[in-house]
């Protein structure tokens, strides 16, 4: 029996390392509609309602990641309703050089996919009500169907919509080398519950009955080993409700030989591919 993460677990900010801090900051302000939260030498925090969603760090000496390596697949920004999502998509169409990567009706949500100027995947999405999500044998039934993005915006856009409120990091999707190792780490050790899988290609995990807080796939990265120190993903933050929850995770990780940096407020550790995770309360 697994000791699962508490139901109130949520995703915190995603840290991205970039060679052009000003360019990437401008993109996240203009498109997703984030606002400045904090600034320090070589770093900025952007978010909504005073909560940081993305932290950008200047790393001019690092090279770009190999697209076949482990790392970030996409950061998913969850908007509180379809109107807020439509407004964000409209803003994206006005971003110079915007790269649109498609849409997906996943049954549980409607999503638009983009690529930021550094090549990081970004999903902008809105959930459907939980009472229409379909579950079978403890697994959520997610689909990937198309829809007309222009029709979505026309139907849901509210005139005069401004900056978003209530947006969060809904989930983070990673590239990994194999699914069984990901399951052993993210489910057995970290404590997420498995909610869906696509054979040996992808795994979806969550806390509290959400469709997924994290996902791992091998679509570009099958067989990948430990990632190099590159631009792109720097850190994934996971937030649990209390210190007791952190202690349970610390024990599970220690039992499995995972090295943990414990500063008294957070736990820092790497997944098997060197993707850095930080757990805080």
TrEMBL record:
CDD domains: VOC_BsCatE_like_C. Belongs to the extradiol ring-cleavage dioxygenase family. The keyword ATP-binding does not apply. Keywords: Aromatic hydrocarbons catabolism, Dioxygenase, Iron, Metal-binding, Oxidoreductase. SUPFAM superfamilies: Glyoxalase/Bleomycin resistance protein/Dihydroxybiphenyl dioxygenase. InterPro entries: Glyas_Bleomycin-R_OHBP_Dase, Glyas_Fos-R_dOase_dom, Glyoxalase_1_CS, VOC_core, Xdiol_ring_cleave_dOase_1/2. Transmembrane segments: none annotated. The keyword Iron applies. This is VOC family protein. Pfam families: Glyoxalase. Its cofactor is Fe(2+). Residues 10-127, 168-281 form the VOC domain. Signal peptide: none annotated.
């Amino acid at each position: 029996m697994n000791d699962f993460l508490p139901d109130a677990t949520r995703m915190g900010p995603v840290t991205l390392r970039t060679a052009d801090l000003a360019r990437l900051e401008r993109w996240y302000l203009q498109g997703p509609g984030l606002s400045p939260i904090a600034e320090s030498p070589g770093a900025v925090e952007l978010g909504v309602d005073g909560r940081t969603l993305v932290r950008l760090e200047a790393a001019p000496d690092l090279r770009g990641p190999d697209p076949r390596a482990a790392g970030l697949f996409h950061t998913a920004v969850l908007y509180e309703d379809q109107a807020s999502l439509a407004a964000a998509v409209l803003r994206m169409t006005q971003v110079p050089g915007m790269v649109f990567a498609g849409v997906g009706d996943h049954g549980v949500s409607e999503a638009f996919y983009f690529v930021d100027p550094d090549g990081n995947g970004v999903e902008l999405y809105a959930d459907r009500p939980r009472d229409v999500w379909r579950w079978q044998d403890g697994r959520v039934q997610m689909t990937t169907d198309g829809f007309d993005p222009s029709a979505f915006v026309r139907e849901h856009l509210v005139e005069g919509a401004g900056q978003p409120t209530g947006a969060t990091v809904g989930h983070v999707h990673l590239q990994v080398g194999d699914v069984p190792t990901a399951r052993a780490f993210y489910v057995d050790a970290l404590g997420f519950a498995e909610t869906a899988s696509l054979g040996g290609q992808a795994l979806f995990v969550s806390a509290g009955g959400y469709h997924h807080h994290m996902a791992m796939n091998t679509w570009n990265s099958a067989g990948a080993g430990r990632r190099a120190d590159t631009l792109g993903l720097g850190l994934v933050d996971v937030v649990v409700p209390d210190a007791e929850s952190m202690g349970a995770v610390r024990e599970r990780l220690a039992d499995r030989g995972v090295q943990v940096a414990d500063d008294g407020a957070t736990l820092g550790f790497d997944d098997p591919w060197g993707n850095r995770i930080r757990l805080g309360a």
